[in-house]
């Protein structure tokens, strides 16, 4: 079953998400898991609904600084998933792989499923550093994760240069990168456990390219941003995954 994760970032307020709920009402998600990740202020809209709900971040510490949100708070809002390590947070808040690792551990402690974002910058890509960057990120973030937790881990490969650019990765390039991500995970955990971890692609996904992306062997779904703001386009993709 394909996953589609809608990251709404700092877009929309309650009224917009009520429209999304109405659009979802009666829609049959047969072969697609639709995970909605609204801003914190709109999590309550989905709390008591039959919706797979995700958050966009959490605090890695129980000593919560002002303005942060804990895993326990998210659990109380019926959140099941949490996006961690998104490139926008890495850039704006200088999040490190070690800090993201601590957030992953905290999410797992409270039964949340981390959607771990990894990916290379345009500079990395030009220097041919894509695979070394991914290996460093994965080795640090997933270090010492118990094998019985791997089925709760989702990797979202998001090349930083593709996000918001309108230029998604080429299918052939994505196939090679997914192959290498699985090889990195195999070195960490062994062949037996590699397929327990889902891999998503994110970065300028739209109605014209999603089928090509999802056809890549080893891709289990999509992490979408901009296209999720247009419900007609969003549900066209969901229908295609169904």
Question: Can you give keywords for this protein?
Answer:
single chain, 242 residues, alpha/beta, 11 helices, 40% helix, globular
Describe the SSE topology.
Layout lengths: L1 E6 L6 H11 L7 E6 L5 H4 L5 E4 L15 H6 L4 E4 L2 H7 L3 H13 L3 E6 L3 H5 L3 H12 L12 E4 L13 H19 L1 H4 L3 E5 L7 H5 L6 E4 L6 H11 L1
Parallel strand pairs: 1-2, 1-8, 2-3, 3-4, 4-5, 5-6, 6-7, 7-8
Helix pairs in contact: 5-7, 7-8
Task: Give the overall shape, derived from the CA principal axes.
Answer: globular
Across the major sheet, the strand order is: 1-2-3-4-5-6-7-8
State the order of secondary-structure elements, H for helix, E for strand: EHEHEHEHHEHHEHHEHEH
CA(first)-CA(last) distance: 8 Å
Q: Could you estimate the helical fraction of the residues in percent?
A: 40-55%
Fraction in beta strands: 15-25%
- Main structural class: alpha/beta
Low-confidence stretches: none
Tally of individual helices: 11
Mean pLDDT across the residues is 94
The main β sheet shows up as: 8 strands, parallel, barrel
